[in-house]
From TrEMBL, chain A:
It comes from Brevibacillus panacihumi W25. Residues 22-255 form the ABC transporter domain. This is Sugar ABC transporter ATP-binding protein. It holds the Pfam family ABC_tran. Keywords: ATP-binding, Nucleotide-binding, Transport. One of its GO terms (molecular function) is ATP hydrolysis activity. It comes from the Bacteria. Transmembrane segments: none annotated. InterPro entries: AAA+_ATPase (IPR003593), ABC_transporter-like_ATP-bd (IPR003439), ABC_transporter_ATP-binding (IPR050763), P-loop_NTPase (IPR027417).
From TrEMBL, chain B:
It holds the Pfam family ABC2_membrane_6. Signal peptide: none annotated. Keywords: Membrane, Transmembrane, Transmembrane helix. This is ABC transporter permease. The chain crosses the membrane at residues 25-47, 122-140, 146-174, 200-219, 231-250.
Length: 331, 262
């Protein structure tokens, strides 16, 4: 489905000196530095896979996706999507792909989503019967009926994003690129969108490449992840394997009902958890532990047994921290 | 044919969007009417003091003016989006969206917008031609109208080609609007007969930025005041050549954009 071999993209960046003088100088003399946005990456994605493509900002995610979709020409290396070299036959490739960019819309701002869909039908030459069927099914799944005839500018962000997904899947693309599709959405909108992605993948066999900073997106949708940093692939494989080997630290914070001179770790947790001292807070107990040694439930139960607790917060594992850790280990 | 149908789809969507802002639509069309009317009044005031301008009568100058206005209207109505290629598409990254669609990017860009101000421009152009033509002291019939229509279409194509050429610089410099608008300013020279300008300016408006072919040379086909009758007939050829050069340059810009990105 998607084959990437030795793919690289180097940008030439003009080096400027600081200040106005530097800017003026830059008009006449420019020195260039080369930035390797993507540096010799290779992977294969099979038809029907859902792959999480993750990495910090500027790691090379967008550049890769732009090369896969034919917007950018690689500096070197090979890309093959549906048997097409995207940058050579961009329009042919475009017919078979869809995309949602969380920050950018493909709906017409002043018109109702239905008008945009109708235009997309003509752009992608979708046969009327298939168009009607897809539109019906997808609006059902995303519960959009009531929104179809309201101008996009009057929709909320969550409503807009749901409409955006119909636009991306309407022409039955073989591959869909999702770039931060749940950014800024509330929990309900996120979960509706995730279940839609899952359904499209299962029912239509759509291959999906998802870039996101939202760990939950990844956990719910992807079995496989590719981690990229500084333009290079750090990890490519099973999501659970990487989580178990890298996400060893879970952190739970307890806010106690009363201030204590000294907060002791409950005896049964001795040796299983680590106490993280917090400055200034004499009523806070923060513990970190490895989920394979002890479960979060056990930790909470033990603390509740010894203390009166006002509040509990569980720190969410951040995808960035995995990347950081892999990087430090020099995987 | 497919693209004609597709254009109609884009067009009707744009029209619907425009109807959302009826007042904007009216103000746009009216303001162009106002601007154009004042500049024609200016020509009128000049001719109230002089009888001819280097041999050109008021109505002959109006005729030139009318051809330019009508040609400009074609460009303004259909190709207005070229102005914002840099600011609304490349700078914002929206051009990537266009590249993700299975249709030619230039078509997509053009179809994305229609500019109703062009209607005001068209009305003015047609009115001015209607006033000027009966006073040209030459027989006017169906054939003349047909030839004029062809020349006006060519005039529109030249406006389009020049703007496309300079809009394309946006692929390298993000937004080439300043270059575009500076060049476009030159076109106001061609509201008047080229013969009143010095050699240098005439050369530029003929050979470098061929705005001369948007009004003066086409007019010379009918009103020959300086021996440019035959040159006038070259207008369609010049238009086609300009479009080819501009389109070739556009393709070149696209390729460069694909290798650098923004």
């Amino acid at each position: 489905m998607i084959e990437v071999r030795g793919l690289s993209k180097h940008y030439r960046i003009a080096k400027r000196k600081q200040g106005l003088l530097g800017a003026i100088q830059g008009l006449f003399i420019r020195k260039y530095t080369s930035k390797k946005a993507v540096d010799d990456i290779s992977f294969t994605i099979a038809s029907g896979e859902v792959v999480g493509y993750i990495g910090s900002n500027g790691a090379g995610k967008s550049t890769t996706i732009k090369m896969l979709s034919g917007i950018l020409t690689p500096t070197s290396g090979d890309v093959l999507v549906n048997g097409i070299v995207p940058y050579r036959e961009r329009q042919k490739n475009a017919k078979k792909i869809g995309a949602v960019f969380g920050q950018r819309t493909q709906l017409m701002w002043d018109l109702a989503p239905r008008e945009s869909y109708d235009l997309l039908k003509h752009i992608y030459q979708i046969p009327e019967a298939i168009y009607q069927k897809n539109l019906h099914e997808m609006t059902e799944k995303l519960q959009l009926h009531s929104l179809l005839d309201i101008p996009v500018r009057q929709l909320s962000l969550g409503q807009k994003m749901r409409c955006e997904f119909v636009a991306a899947f309407l022409h039955d693309p073989a591959v869909v690129y999702l770039d931060e599709p749940t950014i800024g959405l509330d929990v309900a909108a996120k979960s509706r969108i995730r279940s839609f992605i899952k359904q499209m993948n299962e029912e239509k066999g759509t291959t999906i490449i998802l870039t996101t900073h939202d760990m939950q997106d990844i956990e719910e949708l992807c079995r496989r992840i590719i981690i990229i940093d500084n333009g290079q692939i750090l990890y490519d494989g099973d999501l659970h394997a990487v989580k178990n080997s890298f996400l060893h630290e879970h952190v739970i914070s307890f806010e106690l009902d009363e201030e204590k001179e000294e907060i002791l770790i409950p005896g049964e947790l001795e040796g299983l958890v680590t106490y993280i001292p917090e400055e200034g807070n004499s009523n806070k107990l923060t513990l970190s532990f490895h989920p394979e040694t002890i479960s979060a439930a056990q930790v909470i139960a033990a603390v509740l047994h010894h203390y009166r607790v006002r509040d509990v917060s569980i720190a969410e594992p951040k995808i960035e921290s995995i990347v950081q850790e892999i990087y430090e280990r020099g995987a | 044919m497919r693209y004609f149908q597709l254009y109609v789809c884009f067009f009707s969507a744009r029209l619907k969007a425009m109807m959302e802002y009826r007042v904007d639509f009216l103000i746009g069309a009216l303001s162009i009417l106002f601007i154009q009317t004042t500049s024609i009044l200016f020509v009128k005031i000049v001719f109230d003091h002089i009888h001819t301008l280097q041999g050109w009568t008021f109505h002959e100058v109006l005729f030139i003016y009318g051809i330019a206005a009508t040609g400009r209207a074609i460009h303004q109505f259909f190709f207005e989006n070229l102005w914002v290629l840099g600011s609304a598409y490349i700078r914002t990254g929206n051009f990537d969206r266009i590249l993700l669609r299975p249709i030619p990017p230039l078509f997509h860009l053009i179809a994305d917008r229609i500019q109703p101000d062009g209607i005001g421009q068209l009305i003015i152009g047609v009115i001015v031609l209607g006033i000027a033509i009966p006073e040209l002291s030459m027989p006017w019939g169906g054939l003349e109208t047909l030839i004029l229509a062809l020349l006006i279409l060519s005039s529109g194509l030249i406006f389009i080609a020049v703007n496309l050429f300079f809009a394309t610089f946006s692929f390298w410099m993000v937004d080439s609007f300043p270059i575009m608008s500076t060049t476009y300013q030159l076109s106001s020279f061609t509201n008047y007969p080229l013969t009143i300008y010095n050699k240098g300016l005439r050369f530029v408006l003929t050979w470098i930025i061929p705005y001369g072919f948007t009004s003066f040379y086409p007019a010379a086909v009918f009103v020959d005041q300086g021996g440019y009758h035959t040159v006038g007939y070259l207008t369609p050829a010049v238009a086609i050549l300009c479009c080819m050069i501009a389109y070739f340059f556009w393709k070149r810009g696209l390729r460069s954009f694909a290798s650098t990105g923004h």
